[in-house]
Amino acid sequence: MLDEISLAFATTIHKSQGSEYPVVILPLYMQHYMMLSRNLFYTGLTRAKKLAIVIGSKKAISLAVRSSEDKQRYTRLQQRLQN
Q1: Which backbone phi and psi does 54 adopt, to 5 degrees?
Q2: Digit-coded pLDDT (tens) for 48-78
Q3: pTM of the predicted model, to two decimals?
């Protein structure tokens, strides 16, 4: 099966938005708990065309799935448009 391995590159979920890949491997660990959110997890999973592999601790995966809070963005867009 080693002859089936090919060179691949890693990218972030943010950079992969709008793209699809045959296989996606999502590493989820508590060291990056600030990035564990449901919307990023969903985005990562939906990038896979054929296979998605989730690697990590049960605690990290559970935290990503349970975190549904949307973070408020403070862009001051309304004030900028009014000016």
Answers
A1: -105, 125
A2: 999 999 999 999 999 999 887 666 667 788 8
A3: 0.67
